[in-house]
Amino acid sequence: MKNLSAPLSRAAARFGVDPYILALLATVGLALLLPARGAVAGGLGHLMTAAIAVLFFLYGARLSTRAALDGARHWRLHLTILLATFALFPLLGLAAEALAGPVLSPELARGLLFLCLLPSTVQSSIAFTSIAGGSVAGAVCAASFSSLFGILLTPLLASLLLGGGAVRVDAGSVLTLVLQLLVPFLLGQFSRRWTAGWIAAHKPVLTLVDRGSILLVVYTAFSEGVVAGVWHTVSALQLLILAGFCVLILAAALSLTDQAGRRLGFTRADRIAVVFCGSKKSLAAGLPMAAVLFAAKDVALMVLPLMLFHQIQLMTCTVLARRWAAGAPAQAGPPGRSTPPAPSETATASEPPAPQVPHRVG
Questions:
Q1: Which residue intervals of 179-295 are DSSP H helices?
Q2: What is the pLDDT along the chain (362 residues), one digit of tens a residue?
């Protein structure tokens, strides 16, 4: 497997494509051609639940408590990112849903709004911030806050803005999300005393766990859509229109978060954290949330905008982070909360990938 994956990674890097994006597309193709059915689908559903719990346990175990406490002092940065994630984005989603209503199916239009209600990514936000020379400690804390608040805020916003019986938000669904996402995250934090060293020594294995968990969720969700026959309702033109809306949403988010960072007087390092943490949406959190909040027959279409947005944000932010890094000042500013940490501190914060092509996903 290693002999096969290395040439694929080199070929993808040569053309500027993240190999993980190719893996996501291949997983969707596999689900369309060979969807899971019957007992196999039921078993995959249980495995998916366990995989997501493991994924969020690892998120918690990677997060350095010291780095989180250092970053938490910058409350203006975190408040700005939270407002971008849970106030600005929902407004963009409402506008996109209204504009897309006449040209897309109701499920796809609602899916555009749903993706705008999700928390920010964790690993890729930190990775892009690190590559661009931003405040990694602030990004670690802000992205983690976003994930934790999103467990409660996303279902609440979905209930308020989607409504119409399309969302199943009750005590049971919130409890399911807490048990599947929040509890494993907290257990990961508490386990750092025993697991931090092992995790630092086995990064390649954990990368496979990260990616494999998301691929499993994607395959399961799209298999359900194929079995339910929902893909017969999506045309190539609708996919193209949907991708256009995702590009517009991302462009607006990137521009507005950058302007907000400038107007609020943030340093360059903090502005980078605001842009990369405040303009991204988490596939890792969005897929299990959709499975809990929506009917099984609607999940595949509801998460299709998120799938497209996820790939577009990875490709766009890779280019943006590299350009920002190339324009970094030769002399760093004085030490402080906004100064990018040294390489050793970056690795301790959340082990972001090496500064070529980010490999973590959110």
A1: 183-190, 192-201, 203-228, 236-263, 268-278, 283-293
A2: 444 445 545 555 555 556 777 787 788 888 888 888 888 888 887 887 787 788 778 877 877 767 666 666 788 999 999 999 999 999 999 999 999 989 998 889 999 999 999 999 877 788 788 888 888 878 878 887 888 888 889 988 988 898 655 566 666 667 777 787 778 878 888 888 888 888 778 877 777 777 777 778 778 777 877 776 766 777 889 989 999 999 999 999 999 999 999 999 999 999 999 999 999 998 878 888 887 888 766 777 888 899 889 878 887 888 898 889 887 775 444 333 443 333 333 333 333 333 343 444 44
Say which residue the tokens 């521009």 belong to.
Answer: 255
Q: What is the pTM of this model?
A: 0.72
Question: Which residue type occupies 239?
Answer: L
CB 168 within 8 A of CB 154: no
**Which of 275, 140, 329 is CA-nearest to residue 266?**
275
Region of 145 (left: φ > 0; alpha: ψ -120 to 50; beta: rest) is alpha
- The position carrying tokens 């940065």 is 77
Residue 98 corresponds to which tokens in the numbers above? Answer: 């209204």
